[in-house]
Amino acid sequence: MKKLFLFAFVIFVSPITSVFGQNTELQSQSKEQLIDLIDNIVLEIQNERYTYRKIICETDNLINSKIQTSNINQCVFKKEKEIKIVQLRDENKNETTNYYINNGKLIYAETKNNDKTIDKTYYHPSISYLVAYYKCEKEISFSNEEKMKMGIALQ
After folding, report:
1. CA separation (Å) from 92 to 47, 61, 65, 116, 135?
2. Residue among 100, 93, 90 nearest 48 (CA)
3. DSSP state of 11
4. Are 72 and 91 in contact (CB under 8 A)?
5. Whether 74 contacts 96, CB under 8 Å
6. For residue 154, what pLDDT is reported?
7. Rounded to whole angstroms, how far apart are CA atoms 152 and 2?
8. Which long-range contacts (CB under 8 A, 24 or more apart) does 101-104 make?
9. DSSP code at position 124
10. Which of 2, 26, 36, 148 has the fewest CB atoms found within 10 Å of its own CB?
11. Residue 84's CB: how many other CB atoms inside 10 A?
12. Sign of CA pseudo-dihedral 27, 39, 91, 88
């Protein structure tokens, strides 16, 4: 019986505590440390981009909420079965947004606007939580409650 209990503890509890330990470690990092970590992961994904399989989907004349049509092209970059990058290009607005995904979680989004400005959104690598949002290199502040709501919307 003791062996069975020890086996169950090692199999079920040990992985849970290691996962929670990682989350606690990441949660204790400062915003700047998290942004550096996310930037490094994104850089690694970008450097490996040419080894990924590229899937192109063209969606013509999508109807948005204002009943206007737009021409949006979508590319998905996959490493084996894991999606790493989703790229949306709106031809009418001349905007491109890249969504970077790591371990099945959205960690970063970057929008290149038609006026050559860049909006950046950082998400926590292990929990759905907004870390920071920059519009034209200026940080936009949100309350913790708003950040949690944005994270919950991602799930």
Report:
1. 29, 10, 15, 15, 21
2. 100
3. I
4. yes
5. no
6. 52
7. 41
8. 102/41, 102/45
9. -
10. 2
11. 21
12. negative
- Whole-angstrom distance, CA of residue 79 vs CA of residue 20: 27
Residue 139, CA distances (Å) to 39, 91, 98 in order: 16, 27, 19
Question: 54-84 pLDDT, tens per residue?
Answer: 888 755 444 444 444 567 788 899 999 899 9
Distance CA 34, CA 124 (A): 7
What number of H helices and E strands is found in the chain?
4, 8
Q: What is the pLDDT of residues 41-58, one digit of tens each?
A: 999 999 999 999 988 875
Q: Which residue has the tokens 């490094």?
A: 40
Domain span holding position 49: 30-154
Instruction: Give how many domains the chain has, as a whole number.
Output: 1
In a domain, 17, yes or no: no
Is 6 inside any structural domain?
no
Q: CB-based contacts of 71: which residues, under 8 Å, 6+ apart?
A: 60, 61, 62, 90, 91, 92
